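Aim 2 progress update. The chain analyzed this quarter is reproduced below.
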Amino acid sequence: MLGKLFGVEEVKEELKNAKEEIQVLEHKLQIKEKSIKQLEDAVKILEENIKSLLDENDQLKARPDHFGRKSRASGEHIRLLKMYHCNQLSYQEIADKMTAYTGEKWSKSTVYYLLTKS
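Predicted structure tokens:
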């Protein structure tokens, strides 16, 4: 039927062109599938790295020497606290002197905690 309308040779040429185009598109599809596979593999590797880093982070958090927040009191601060305490200053007086010395607010409860801890 199509042969009668367009001619057999024209239909054969269109069919040949369509098959060639299908082959080209299939080749492009294979290249894209390989690229997707490589990217998926890279994502899996990155996910494994993230998981291992998270596990390592959890283990570091669980260490007893890293519990709580970091103290802002240096060794010099502790030495001053002990010196003021030996001079029989009250915790509030020590806190006031430490506030003046460091420029940061010190409370008497912080002074008490650091003196009893050290």
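Residues 45 and 85 are 57 Å apart (CA to CA). The mean pLDDT is 87. These observations will guide the mutagenesis experiments scheduled for the next reporting period.
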